[in-house]
Design brief:
The chain has 189 residues and is mainly beta. It folds into 3 domains: 61 residues, SH3 type barrels (Roll), CATH 2.30.30; 61 residues, Nucleic acid-binding proteins (OB fold (Dihydrolipoamide Acetyltransferase, E2P), Beta Barrel); 57 residues, OB fold (Dihydrolipoamide Acetyltransferase, E2P) (Beta Barrel). It is built from no helices and 16 strands. The strands form 3 sheets. The protein has a 6-stranded antiparallel beta sheet, with no helix packed on it. A 5-stranded antiparallel beta sheet has the order 9-8-7-10-11, with no helix packed on it.
Amino acid sequence: MASTADFKNGMCIHYKDDLYTIVQFQHVKPGKGPAFVRTKLKNVKTGKIIDNTFNSGVKVDVARIERRPHTFLYKDDMGYNLMHTETYEQIALEESLFNAPDLLKDGDPVEVVVHADTETPLYAELPAHVTMQVTYTEPGLRGDTSSTNSLKPATIETGATIMVPLFINTDDVIKVDTRDHSYVERVKA
């Protein structure tokens, strides 16, 4: 058990029969009335963010979660197979637990967040940025920049399609943001 004085960003708590992480919090002491804590809580399973206000000093149940480093091995009918990088233990996770399963390629690092008390995997995160090779994109036409932010679709090595600038060609290596599937930059060879 912890109180609202112990709140930190990233802390995981049990709230309304579900797990939430604290995204943001603010202690407020108004001129009149008791103090309270205004928070933004993110549901671990759905990713939905809710606003909630706790009275100051209220006890909350803290959930122990651990972040464990894994490596993606392969995908089969059991799901996505991962290997723990320290213990070499293998697990299979379903696609819904990943933030960007279409950007996974063999050997990529994956961080699995596990509820430590029940040993249940909650979700799996890829690094913020991954490098990918463009397998196909239409060539950009010279003078085809009617707007300042001209983008075209490109297929990358995992089969996913993302929007890239017109100067990107087939076989270029690019950096992709896994959080929103956006182009970040071209990687120099």
